[in-house]
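Deliverable D5.2: sample structural annotation.
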Amino acid sequence: MNTKSLRELLAGVQAGQITVDQALEQLKSWPYEDLGFAKLDHHRHLRNGFPEVIFCPGKTVEQIVSIMQRMSAAHNNVLATRASAEVFAAVQAVIPEAEYHELARLIIVRRQVTPPRGKVLVISAGTADLAVAEEARLTAELLGCGVDCLYDVGVAGIHRLFDQWQKLQAAQVIVVVAGMEGALASVVGGLVDRPVIAVPTSVGYGANFGGLSALLGMLNSCAAGVGVVNIDNGFGAAVLAWSITRVNLPE
């Protein structure tokens, strides 16, 4: 329940449309709702600007469906990450407007679209990094960012990046998604005067160690102004980018 919903609830009581007892029953789920297996944080959008996001791995299909139902009843936009096609089929059966983005493994319920604000550029080193890059792009768009993309411009053919100089300069925040040795984040960080969020991916050969080589390469970047999120965490990078874009924007 958001501030607007609370005002509407009080207005309903005053108008005699609902009883005080009915209003109190609804208020029990504010600021969180206890489902037994999960406590849904309905206050999070008031604190952080966006409702609680559902991380699907480790939950049963039934649990995810129940959480999605309750979240979508309370909020206009809902996001579930790392979702399988099986989970989406179950969710869509009860929430027909739910969208599934297979590559990014995201389920999105989108009932409210606001004009995009700020500009985030999502860059991927290779096509193999697209799952993480798309997770970042779609998350940033749902959060309300203006998003542009620049894919498959890794250091093995760095001229592909230099050809897109205008995109680099137009961005407010740049998210760089790269596996292997993760060098692309350092290259981009050395070219621009804006925040660069590096996302190491688990893409690579044996000594990549599931993304550890890219993570360590990015952490050891000699380019100033490069921050690093965890391996394959396109979602976290998007939320950080969104937070940065909001700093200098009027409410």
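Annotation notes: The chain has a mean pLDDT of 88. The first strand starts at residue 32 and ends at 34.
The annotation will be released with the project's public dataset once the embargo ends.
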